[in-house]
UniProtKB/TrEMBL annotation:
InterPro entries per UniProt: EamA_dom (IPR000620), EmrE-like (IPR037185)
SUPFAM superfamilies on file: Multidrug resistance efflux transporter EmrE
Domain of life: Bacteria
Protein name (Swiss-Prot/TrEMBL): EamA family transporter
Organism: Floccifex porci
Cellular-component GO terms for this entry: membrane
Length: 286
């Protein structure tokens, strides 16, 4: 059953990237992240009350609480980097780098959670690494001094923090109901996001957000909430080294929608890279 939750997580995560891209065309990415986190938070706590797990907060161990906080901080950092990268870069280049967090997650799962690394996972890591490299155009990585190429640094930051999020989240939800764990860490993300808004002095721009972008930001938040609930339920019941690769299959949905919505086309080299990433991801499920 947890595998099904992982696939649902991938679907909603794929939609999230497209909706978010639509919502940050003119709106500052940090402000948009803070706004959508409110939606995710409401969604998360609503699920806590629906499943009736709120009382577990009183019996939560300090270790569980600590790792949920750390996971939330990493999630906030990953989001801020990811949506900044989406705002200034193409989806079909940003997403592959973000999804490469699978490699680091598997390594950390082996070192910290003692999950086994089979030869199929090793092949998957090689395929994902090679595919990610192919999906980044050479001209995009040869001139990193221009503003137009800063997206790559934000995308790499998003990948690193996303990996840490998965590992810390796996440890944090080991002793409590997954929806409650998601709600707690989302609260941390919300606090972190709004602190960043005020630090960068973007709060005055909230009245400039158009009605259309408000709609896409809110829809993006709802999709994220659904993805998270499915993801952490799968993570709680299954193996992190399997759940994370399935979740990363959202790249197929994202790339497909980016073609129809934003008319972002893949070169033959990038298409080969996408095939390698998907093949590598699927090999980890064997």
């Amino acid at each position: 059953m947890w595998i099904l939750y992982a696939f649902f997580s991938a679907f909603f995560a794929g939609i999230t990237s497209i909706l978010a891209k639509c919502g940050i065309k003119k709106t500052d990415s940090t402000l948009a992240t803070a706004i959508r986190t409110i939606v995710v938070l409401i969604f998360s706590w609503l699920m806590v009350y629906i499943v009736g797990s709120f009382d577990q907060i009183y019996t939560m161990e300090f270790k569980t609480f600590l790792f949920l906080i750390l996971s939330g901080l990493c999630t906030g950092a990953s989001w801020l980097c990811y949506f900044k990268a989406l705002q200034i870069g193409d989806i079909n280049k940003v997403v592959p780098i973000d999804k490469s967090s699978t490699i680091l997650t598997i390594i950390l799962a082996f070192l910290l959670l003692h999950e086994s690394v089979t030869w199929t996972k090793m092949v998957g890591i090689l395929f994902i690494g090679a595919g990610t490299f192919l999906m980044i155009e050479k001209k995009q990585i040869s001139n990193v001094e221009t503003k137009g190429n800063q997206w790559i640094f934000y995308a790499l930051g998003a990948a690193v923090f996303a990996s840490l999020t998965s590992i810390l989240g796996k440890i944090g939800i080991s002793g409590i109901e997954s929806n409650l764990g998601t709600a707690i860490r989302t609260s941390v993300v919300l606090l972190m996001s709004w602190i960043m808004v005020f630090v960068t002095k973007k709060q005055s721009e909230i009245h400039k957000v158009s009605k259309k972008e408000w709609i896409f930001i809110v829809l993006s938040g709802l999709a994220t909430g659904a993805s998270w609930l499915c993801y952490y339920k799968a993570l709680q019941d299954g193996l992190a080294s399997v759940v994370v690769p399935i979740d990363k299959l959202s790249i197929l949905i994202t790339i497909l929608f980016s073609y129809f919505v934003f008319h972002e086309k893949l070169s033959k080299k990038a298409l080969l890279g996408l095939c390698l990433i998907v093949s590598g991801t699927l090999s980890m499920l064997i």
